Amino acid sequence: MTKMKIVAGLLGLLCLSAVSATAATADEKIELPEEPVVVSDYQPDPLEPQIVIRSGEDATFYEYRVNGELVEIKVVPSIGPEYYLVPAEGGGWIRENETRVLVPSWVIFRW
User: Fold this and answer.
1) Which residues contact 23 (CB under 8 A, 6 or more apart)?
2) CA-CA distance, 61 to 93, in Å (whole number)?
3) Following DSSP, what letter does each residue of 68-109 receive, concatenated?
4) Which three-class secondary structure state does DSSP give residue 39?
5) How far apart are CA 57 and CA 78, in angstroms?
6) Contacts of 63 (CB under 8 A, 6+ apart)
């Protein structure tokens, strides 16, 4: 029983010291900045592909951009297989069945 009393006494001292420490910091005056602090938005690495997803009535479009330039559009129609639109040399777009853009992907969990 004496060990229990010692442990209880030590826990009581720890709690009392924690309460007195928070009371001391609560009495301090906190100065707020005049203007709100603005944290800049997350900016992804411009060298990596960025994907913008747009939903349409009959299909979903995945726009792949590298350095801000549109390099490929993945089209997933509601009916039928998906396909890719890639820019042609003379202008316009060419339809392909496979992607040219390599997007990193890792398996995190598998069960």
Assistant:
1) none
2) 14
3) TEEEEEEEEESSS--EEEEE-TTSSEEEESS-----------
4) coil
5) 9
6) 51, 52, 53, 54, 70, 72, 73
Structure tokens at 108: 């995190």
User: CA angle at residue 40 from 32 to 108, to 5 degrees?
Assistant: 120
CA angle 105, 88, 81 (to 5 degrees): 50
Provide the mean pLDDT of the chain. 73
Token reading at 109: 């969990």
H/E segment holding residue 61: strand 59-66
| Distance in angstroms (rounded) separating the CA atoms of residues 95 and 100 | 12
Q: Give the Cα separation of 90 and 53 in Å (integer).
A: 26
| Cross-strand bridge partners of residue 64 | 51, 72
Query: Tens digit of pLDDT for each residue in 65-100?
Result: 877 788 899 999 999 999 999 888 888 888 888 887
